[in-house]
Amino acid sequence: MADEPIDSGQPAQHPVTATFDLLGDRLTLTILRHAFVNHTRRFNQWIERTGAPPAVLTARLTALVDAGVFVRTPQAAAPDRFDYLLTDLGMATWEILVSVWSWQREWTAEGALHPDLVHDACGHRGPPVLMCRGCGRTVTPRDTDVDLGDDALWRFTSSGRRRARAPVAARTDMRFDEVMEAIGDRWSATVTGLALAGVRRFSAFRTAMNMSPTTLTERLSRLCDAEILRRSGDGAGREYRLTPRGRALFAIYAFLLSWSALAHPGAPEPGLRIRHRECGADLVPALRCRGCDARLERADVRFEPVSQPVLERLARVADQHLLTPPH
What we know:
Layout: E1 3-6, H1 15-23, H2 26-37, H3 43-50, H4 54-66, E2 70-74, E3 82-86, H5 88-91, H6 94-107, E4 116-119, E5 129-132, E6 144-148, H7 152-158, E7 161-164, H8 177-183, H9 186-196, H10 202-209, H11 213-225, E8 229-232, E9 239-242, H12 244-247, H13 250-263, E10 272-276, E11 285-288, E12 295-296, E13 301-304, H14 308-323
Antiparallel strand pairs: 1-7, 2-3, 4-13, 5-11, 6-10, 8-9, 11-12
C-alpha cells in the first residue's frame, strides 16, 4: 500500500478509509498472521519472522496499538520491553485473515504451500464459504446489493492526507503481493469494490469516483493484468467485468466493512452498505465450514503447516511442469 493517514488537523477519517489504510498492507497482515498462527507477541520475534526493518515494524505496531488492535504490556522480566497482545478488536480481524488466506489458497500459484485451515469438529481442511449471519444462507456477490450514499465514494477516496510508506523487504512467507493489487491503495480498492457492486463501464467508474481518466485507466489496466478484471468490447462499449478470481475477493471486502463498523462505532454513517437480497437485511458476514456446514468461530479452527511429503510432491509436480514442453 502506498499511503497512510497523517495530519491530525484534517477532518476525521472515513471509517472505511481508516480500515483499508490500516489493514490493506502486506506487512500489517503478516504481523497479524504471525500473532494468530505463531502466537507472536514480541518485537524481536516479528523482526525474525518478517525481516522488516526495525523502524518500519515499529511504525506498523504503533499504528495497530493506536487503532486498538494490540495493547502494549510490559514484560514481567524486563519492564522496559513490551509484549503486543491482541485485544478483542484485534481478535475480530481473524475472519479478514482467513478470507485473505482463502483467496490466496485458491487463486494464487503458491497457495498450495499455505498452511491448512482445519475445522476441529469435523476435520475438514480447506477454505470456508461466506454466509449471512442473520439468515444463515451462503452468500455470493450476486446475492447482494451495494447501497452507496451520494458522497460516500468521495469521502472514502479523499479522506485524510497520506504519505508513502517505507518499502519492506519481503520474506518468503509474506505472500500478500497479489491481493494487494485489489486492496493495497484507495483507488484500486474503490475500483474493485465498484466492480463487485456491478459497475462495468469506464464512464460509470469515472462518474462514481470523480477520478482522472489517466489514473482510472492505470488502475483498470493493473487490475486486468492481475486477472481481477477482464476487458471486453471496444470504444464506448468497452466493459470491465470481474473474473472468477476477482469475484472471490468479495468475502475480504465484506469482512473489512464489517470490522470497520466494530472499530469505529461512534463514526458517522459511512454511506456504504451491503444488503443481502434474500433476507433483506444489511449483510453481517460469517464463515461456514464446507465440510459440515457449521458456522465457524475463531476457537473452532486451527492452521496446520503443510506436511513435508505434500511439499515434496508439490515440488515434483512443479518440476515436471517446468520440464514438459508446451503444446
